[in-house]
Design goal:
By secondary structure, the chain is α/β, with parallel strands linked by helices. It has two domains: 6-255, Type I PLP-dependent aspartate aminotransferase-like (Major domain) (Aspartate Aminotransferase, domain 2, 3-Layer(aba) Sandwich), CATH 3.40.640; 260-396, Aspartate Aminotransferase, domain 1. It has helices at 6-11, 37-44, 60-73, 84-95, 110-119, 135-140, 164-174, 222-229, 235-239, 245-255, 258-278, 294-300, 318-330, 360-366, 383-396, and strands at residues 77-81, 101-105, 126-130, 146-152, 177-181, 198-202, 216-220, 282-284, 310-314, 335-336, 346-349, 372-376. The model has no long low-confidence stretch (mean pLDDT 94). The structure holds pyridoxal-5'-phosphate. Keywords: Lyase, Pyridoxal phosphate, Transferase.
Length: 401
């Protein structure tokens, strides 16, 4: 994977503002004028090269941000949306019509799971949920009407890593689209380089990184992006999950420091994961040799950005998890909050929060125990000090001696 560096791709993109500003100017308009009526007609028809029409379709700042994210994911094009779910639902609804079938990893973001499981079936779009590393089951469940194989590169919350190369081979054999949600591993995993067709991110997490914005993106071929924006049949154009220009300007500026933040998140998470594992806790982190996908992750990641900022600790019961999280928050070690990718450590109990859409029985079968705490490790400068303070909390609630 040495030949591609996503951070360099972003860095090489240079945008200037209208007056020579070092940041691009924000175009604060919902609609655009045309010098001739003919050009307006052509733009409606999708032939208005470089023309803006109406900001639900396209706007200059959104195009800047989308271009940067397309560079990052090594695709020809991208489109930004008002949320990660806005990107996921756009992609799925563009590709699937009534009667189609989807195969999905069963360890996915709770909102995506609920969309596939509850929202799509009334439209006659069915999903089979499987373990993404059970290749025999995956192949056996492919039907003539299967259109999509959907997974997360690093899954939520269990941090299982998808073997994207092998999944891509399977998809090519059966002409399925491989769609990968790469929210947990920006820069460190490049799904397109491993054979994915479409890559999705919730920009709300690491990419924006300041927990002040909600946003999403899908990165794909120019043809697919154009389809989703078609005025007659495009899922994004017609469902309308448009990102606001002011937001995209803000996210683009934060994207500029993503590489530094990812390194620090990963470095801190690896440190804590190693120390807590040595202390005898049930820690899951792809950077640990004990993690079932450690070697796989090493074989697909760009090493400089590390194994990511998320880790889980299983303290067995919800009561213990809650007690520990409340204490850590009181000690200012982080916040009891969902989401991830913030400067501050965030922790939540997955079973009762971000994965609560998944029925209890299925959750336990997946390995999401009631006491599983997901940590999104922050950018702490002195992680050794954080470790000592966290360990003291664990001792106080009886998780460690
Ligand atoms: C948060 C998240 C989403 C949804 O993104 P929103 O921006 O909240 O709509 C999708 N996938 C993953 C992996 C996420 O963590």
């Amino acid at each position: 994977m040495e030949d591609f560096n996503a951070a360099n791709e972003i860095q090489d993109l240079q945008y200037f503002g209208e007056f020579g500003g070092v940041n691009p100017s924000i175009s604060d308009s919902s609609t655009y004028t045309f010098l001739s009526a003919k050009t307006m007609f052509d733009t409606f028809e999708g032939n208005g090269e470089g023309c803006y029409l109406y900001s639900r379709h396209s706007s200059p700042m959104n195009v800047y941000l989308a271009q940067a994210l397309a560079k990052m994911e090594n695709t020809a094009a991208a489109n930004v949306t008002s949320s990660g779910m806005g990107a996921i639902t756009t992609v799925l609804l563009q590709l699937c019509k009534s009667g189609d079938h989807i195969i999905s990893s069963r360890t996915i973001y709770g909102g995506t799971y609920a969309f596939l499981k509850n929202f799509l079936p009334p439209f006659q779009i069915e999903t089979t949920f499987l373990d993404i590393d059970d290749f025999e089951a995956l192949e056996n469940s492919i039907r003539p009407n299967t259109k999509i194989l959907y997974c997360e590169s690093v899954s939520n919350p269990l941090l299982r890593v998808a073997d994207l190369r092998r999944l891509s081979t399977l998809c090519k054999k059966y002409k399925l689209k491989l769609i990968v949600d790469n929210t947990f591993s920006p820069l460190s995993i490049s799904p397109i380089r491993l054979g994915a067709d479409i890559v999705i991110h919730s920009l709300t997490k690491f990419i924006n990184g300041s927990s002040d914005s909600v946003g999403g993106v899908y990165c794909a071929s120019q043809e697919f992006i154009d389809e989703t924006k078609n005025v007659n049949s495009g899922a994004c154009m017609l469902l309308g999950p448009t990102m606001d220009s002011l937001r995209s300007a803000s996210i683009l500026k934060n994207l500029r420091t993503l590489h530094i933040r990812m390194k620090q998140h990963s470095c801190n998470a690896l440190y804590l994961a190693e120390r807590f594992e040595q202390d005898g806790l049930k820690v899951s982190y792809p950077g640990l040799i004990s993690h079932p996908n450690h070697e796989l992750m090493k074989s697909i990641m760009h090493e400089a950005y590390g194994f990511g900022g998320l880790m889980t600790v299983d303290v067995e019961t919800t009561e213990r998890a809650n007690e520990l999280m409340e204490l850590m928050q009181a000690e200012n070690l982080g916040y009891l909050a969902v989401s991830l990718g913030f400067y501050k450590t965030l922790f939540s109990c997955s079973g009762s929060s971000t994965s609560s859409e998944i029925p209890e029985e299925e959750r336990l079968a997946m390995g999401i125990s009631d006491g599983l705490i997901r940590f999104s490790i922050g950018l702490d400068d002195d992680i050794e000090r954080t470790y000592r303070k966290m360990r003291a909390c664990m001792q106080k609630v009886g998780i460690l001696k």
